[in-house]
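DOMAIN: structural biology
WANTED: fold as tokens
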Amino acid sequence: MGRSVSHPAGAVVAFRMLDRDGEDDLQWTYECLVEDILHSARDAFPSLEPYDGWRGREDRILLRNAFADCGISTYCGLAAIWLARRDDSRFWEADCDQPQVSLAERWITQVGPRFEKLFGELKLVGRFSNGEAIYERTSSCI
């Protein structure tokens, strides 16, 4: 199967290109995008707090609240900005006392469309049988 940008299963995902306007410094562009995510997401969703962590080796967590992680993953100039239900031991320990999963899924469902509109420049249209993904620009970018 072909390789594409990673993101947690079941996440709300917004896609963007990193190499805009022929900029040569991809790392600088990445860091600017991370700063934009940190500020924009906190303004839009005040419950998100800065968090420095990883889900596996490819999905970087930037923000977290009681229910969800917000992060970024990149591959070949494509960034996936995602919002996914937390999947750490503290979340599952809290779930034992008071069910958190349904609350988390409800919160993500409520904020998902706003999240995609805030960060999405590309929309995943589909995948070929080899795993290669096809994207189109969203109407807000045209």
Notes: The chain is about 35% helix and 30% strand.
